[in-house]
Amino acid sequence: DNGEQVLVDVEDKTNKEITEHIRKILGKSKETLEKEEKERKKLSPPATFGPKKYHLRECMCEIEGQVPCPAVVPLPKEMRGKYKAAFKKEA
Predict the structure, then answer these.
(1) Is residue 75 within 8 Å of residue 64, measured between CB atoms?
(2) C-alpha triplet 34, 39, 43: angle, nearest 5°
(3) Model's pTM, two decimal places?
(4) Which of 6, 25, 63, 90 has the most crowded CB, counting CB atoms within 10 A?
(5) Residue 83 pLDDT greater than 80, yes or no
């Protein structure tokens, strides 16, 4: 934060050891990270969806009463854009 240089001896250390050492010196503790993640999840309302990292649900189809994912269950023809466009052309 204040521009101070940090020298780290990396000779004869593995990638994991170097990463852990730097995280221990410069990073936040595991407890702090876990606490921040819990707070972030508490702030997120249950109605939102997105990556599991940030939200409780990954897809809208996981909510009860919603239309299932088209990748899993095919949509009815009436709900598809191609069908609607073809139907409009006929009429």
Answers:
(1) no
(2) 150
(3) 0.35
(4) 63
(5) no
